[in-house]
Write a structure and sequence with these properties.
heterodimer, A: alpha/beta, about 40% helix, B: alpha/beta, Rossmann fold, 5-stranded mixed β-sheet
């Protein structure tokens, strides 16, 4: 799906837990997530801390969308 | 006697389904689950002395630690051969089988074999490194997969010469081998061309690799003005799954209106995905589709706006052809709606 979106000219950032799969699939901007059943959350945290964590991942994804890249790039933690 | 260690996931190990996908690796003496049939297929020259069982999510979320721990377990049994799976079209299981086979082959220097469906993401990741027997896409193909895996594994263990992929049933590894043919190359090429012109079947001797890559688009210059859309393969749908998106092998996607939605709650949204433990997403779907945070960022002026619709499907055994078709369709809508960037989340 990332490739088809990228193909029409829209930059796309892939937030995912298993980065090697994303690389294989062909995503260009990749932001690693927390865990498979809760990529943008952590049920062990308080509601506030969890939302702050989610916000930090989304902000990283926005940063990735603003970054010029020349090939597949993983925006590390 | 050829000593074999077998690797399987928590499901085939009888530990549990998705709710147990986070279990750490363990090793048990003898056969477990599909190891029984595998042992029979290997014949009396080999024996499965131990079975490693590991949760699919645990392996994929902790690849380095999991691989290191499993290598230590395997080493203690001093095997001559290592077999993983088969994983069919289970993505995380395939990635686990491929990774651990590669690690065992490199570190313990013994032959390894696994089995997967051609679209399993583990295939593209590991087909060059290890022999992967091509299987059906679901466990209903177990009866065909086991003998094929056993046969190739025994050949490798006995150091016999391995034939071409189509003869032996494994997925091409991109290895070129010199062979003698009775007819010279120019004749074979012309024969192939004639067959092609006649519309007959022919087989190329040098298939071109399929590099389907899309170059990255230029970045967003002013994110404060950008219209951003959310897309997910994590199956987040309005409660009740109005479009009845299938929990695996999805045949459709959904398009849902986020007007007036500031937070996804247990009462309003859920996941339709059958390939991970749904507990956490069902309690708070923002954990997969971060609508709450994007609404905040929209209010604060960090982004221009969150696009009115999000698109969702279930990325669980869904064919590549379907996923491609879904996205090709809604990508056109995104363009028409003036969306400038997409955040796509996957579980």
């Amino acid at each position: 799906m990332v490739k088809e979106i990228e193909r029409v000219g829209i930059p796309v950032v892939h937030i995912c837990t298993v980065v090697p799969i994303s690389l294989t699939v062909g995503a260009n901007r990749i932001v690693p997530a927390i865990a498979i059943p809760h990529p943008l959350g952590n049920p062990a945290m308080s509601k506030e801390d969890e939302k702050a964590l989610r916000r930090s991942i989304v902000l990283k994804a926005l940063k990735a969308l603003e970054t010029e890249i020349h090939g597949q790039t993983v925006f590390e933690k | 006697m050829i000593r074999v260690v077998h690797y399987i996931n928590q499901f085939y190990g009888g530990i549990g389904g998705e709710e147990k996908a986070d279990v750490k690796p363990e090793i048990r003496e003898g056969v477990v689950g599909p190891g029984m049939a595998l042992k029979a297929a290997l014949g009396n020259e080999a024996d499965i002395i131990a079975t490693v069982i590991c949760g699919d999510s645990y392996f994929n979320e902790n690849m380095e630690e999991a691989s290191a721990a499993i290598l230590e377990m395997v080493k203690k049994y001093n095997p001559d051969l290592f077999i993983a799976g088969p994983a069919f079209n289970a993505g995380r299981y395939g990635v686990a089988c491929g990774s651990i086979c590669k690690a065992v082959k490199e570190k313990l220097n013994i032959p390894v074999v696994t089995g997967m469906y051609i679209e399993n993401p583990g295939v593209d990741m590991f087909k060059k490194d290890v022999h992967i027997v091509e299987t059906a896409n679901a466990a209903t193909g177990m009866r065909q997969a086991i003998p094929a895996i056993a046969k190739l594994a025994m050949k490798l263990a006995k150091n016999e010469s391995i034939g071409a992929p189509q003869e032996e049933g494994y997925i091409p590894r991109g290895v070129r081998k010199n062979v003698f043919k009775s007819e010279r190359g120019s004749k074979r090429a012309v024969d192939m061309l004639v067959a092609k012109l006649k519309g007959e079947k022919f087989e190329t001797e040098y298939p071109m690799p399929d590099f389907d890559r899309v170059a990255p688009n230029p970045p967003i210059l002013d994110i404060k003005k950008a219209k951003i859309a959310l897309v997910t393969s994590g199956g987040i749908v309005p409660k009740g799954n109005p479009d009845r998106i299938e929990s695996s092998s999805a045949s459709k996607y959904g398009k849902y209106d986020l007007t007036g939605v500031n937070d996804l709650t247990a009462e309003t949204y859920e996941t339709a995905h059958g390939g991970y433990d749904p507990t956490y997403a069902n309690i708070d779907a923002d954990r997969v589709l971060p609508v709450d945070v994007l609404r905040d960022l929209e209010k604060e002026g960090v982004i221009g706006e969150l696009h009115r619709y999000y698109y969702a499907t279930v990325g669980n055994g869904t064919s590549v052809a379907n996923a491609k078709k879904f996205a090709a369709t809604f990508a056109q809508e995104l363009v028409k709606d003036g969306v400038q960037a997409v955040i796509l989340t996957s579980t």
